[in-house]
Amino acid sequence: MNEILIKQGTIIDGTGARSYKADVLIRGDLIAKIGNLENLSISKKIKAEGLVVSPGFMDVHSHLGFLMASPRHSKLLENWTRQGVTTIVSGNCGYSPAPINPEMLPDLEKYWYFAFPKEGLQFNWKTMEDFFNYLEKKGISHNLAMLTGHNTLRANVMGFENRSPSKREMDEMKEMLEESIRAGSIGLSLGLDYVPGIFSKTEELMELASVLTPFQAPLVPHARGFLGNLFTQGMREIIEIAEKNKIPLHISHHAGGGVSRARKIISEEIIEAIQRGVKISHDNIPFPNASTTVLNLFPPWAFSGGMKEFFNRLKDANIREQIKKEMSSFTPKWPPWEYKWWTHRGFNKNLFIFGLTKKENHRLNHKKLFEIADILNKDPADALIDLVLSEDGKIFYISGQFDSPLGEDYVKTIISDPNCSIGTDIVGLDFNTISPVINGAFTKIVGNYVREEKLFSLEEAVRKITSLPASQMQIENRGVIKEGFHADITIFDPATISCTASYKNPHVPPEGIEHVIINGQIIYEQGIYYNNVLAGKVLRKNYSFS
Ligand SMILES: [Zn+2]
Q1: 194 CA to centre of ligand 1 in angstroms
Q2: 288 CA → ligand 1 middle, Å
Q3: Sign of CA dihedral 353, 359, 361, 366
Q4: Helices assigned H by DSSP within 258-360
Q5: For 199, phi and psi rounded to 5 degrees?
């Protein structure tokens, strides 16, 4: 049996408890013993003197689920390994690769391309169970816990229709969700700024989420208008859904509201809800930016009926004018179903476009939309529409505040909350994103935020990216250095661990990670990543229910 002895490290166990010195014995895929194990004769030893032995880090919010199915996935996830990540949560923002209705793939492949690998993705499954079986047979590089996405369920049953589901369609969605949870999916995600989830009224979400109640599985929403003027109503909507259904709520990338009064009001309402007994937690990206598909800058109604209709509308001169007008002037109002489904304003001046693959568009890649408009001598909306037509809709943007102290301060405030875990939320990974998140989300928390910013203790930093996300996502027997727990371990140097990547220089690798062990197997040591090890497991949740 595989045995590894980690000698004389400083154990930070992930619970927030004070560090202590001990040896750790790994046997098979488990942590077998912790203590003074000097006299054990084990052939594989790791000297950890002066280093921290921590549970492997968890990325609580990602779009890596689609990539996991690709033969290239372990290479694509190299950056996660180099940051010390051992477990990935995916299926966020309403998008899960399963369950899938193959008839919907032509639409999904265009709208959801932001989460896809460049090539080689084949949907060799239909149900969540099939998907898990497929991954297990093929092997995966990291542990994966999957949410089931509402957008996926809705698209499977009713395509991109902008109406409420019939009773039969509602039942089908509920059935698919229950089947997925029974197969081991950990909960339900919503992506209410995206098609087709954006076309749902509160009552649909309320009914769908009722499936979670007997399992006590979490609702994990990307709320409506989360960065726009519907922030308050969008937050109230998801709190109400969780409270009425008596289920845990985990708010995705909870950065909305800015330093406004709205944020203060919602923070108070969240505290009140928690006092009433609603379980609420959240996560955030440790950088002041977000990236997603450019398609979410278009009026939602333009996608009604599917992607083919969308492209036809862009080619119709009158409809194109209407779209342009709304993109630059529409102000969303509540409830969205009475205001053309818009949940947030179209584009602003700070959008960097990427993912352009056509030769004629290469010179425009990684430029701001407004610069592109200048270069092409077009109105920004026209420039965007023409690029979308030319690239078949498969383009992404990154927006927010770039290397700005104000933006960083806001992020620090959110992340300091003891209830906030950390996610990468990267899109367009296979298309050379300029987000520094890929090179230091986790090393920034444990390094820069502890040593330079003194935001929290090293023990607390480790808790935020280990046992906290494990408990939020109900992942059992991981996230803590404890005898009998799974041997997911990250060993790092507390003096050097850091993120030096920035928007100007996003491709600087993280520093300070020495060893990464997944399920008792070393996948990374001192600069070398063994991407053929495939030590990851599908973390099938086994919900006990009444
Ligand atoms: Zn999202």
Answers
A1: 9
A2: 14
A3: positive
A4: 261-275, 307-315, 317-329
A5: -85, 15
CA proximity to 281, closest of 463, 528, 99, 56: 463
- C-alpha of residue 522 to centroid of ligand 1, in Å: 32
Ligand 1 centroid to Cα of residue 253, in Å, is 7
Q: Is 149 helix (H, G, I), strand (E, B) or coil?
A: strand
| Tokens read off for 540 | 């099938």
Closest CA to 464 of 450, 483, 453, 451: 450
Report in angstroms the alpha-carbon separations of 109 from 105, 121, 393, 396: 6, 10, 10, 14
Q: Mind spelling out the 3-state secondary structure of 478-507?
A: CCCCCCCCECCEEEECCCCCECCCCCCCCC
Number of Cβ within 10 Å of residue 401's Cβ equals 17
Distance 111 CA to ligand 1 centre (A): 14
Q: Phi first, then psi: what are they for 344, rounded to 5°?
A: -155, 160
- How does DSSP classify residue 55? E
* DSSP-derived 3-state class of residue 521: strand
- Long-range contact pairs involving 467-471 (C-beta distance under 8 Å, separation at least 24): 467/14, 467/15, 467/16, 467/55, 468/281, 468/419, 468/421, 469/58, 469/60, 469/89, 469/283, 469/421, 469/422, 470/58, 470/87
Distance separating alpha carbons of residues 68 and 400, to the nearest angstrom: 28
| CA–CA separation, 411 and 408 (whole Å) | 5
The pLDDT value recorded for residue 38 is 87
| Ligand 1 geometric centre to CA of 521 (Å) | 32
The candidate with the shortest Cα–Cα distance to 336, out of 229, 227, 256, is: 229
CA atoms of 424 and 117, how far apart (whole Å):
17
Please write the tens of the pLDDT for every residue from 333-377. Answer: 999 999 999 998 877 788 999 999 999 999 999 999 999 999 999
Helix (H, G, I), strand (E, B) or coil at 66: helix
111: Cα separation from own chain's centroid: 17
State whether the Cα torsion 503-438-71-295 is positive or negative.
negative
Q: Write out pLDDT tens, residues 449-472.
A: 999 999 999 999 999 999 999 999
Identify whether the C-beta of residue 255 lies closer than 8 Å to the C-beta of residue 224.
no
Q: Give me ligand 1 centre to Cα 132, in Å.
A: 23
- Work out the angle between the directed axes of helices 231-245 and 202-209 (0-180°, nearest 10): 30
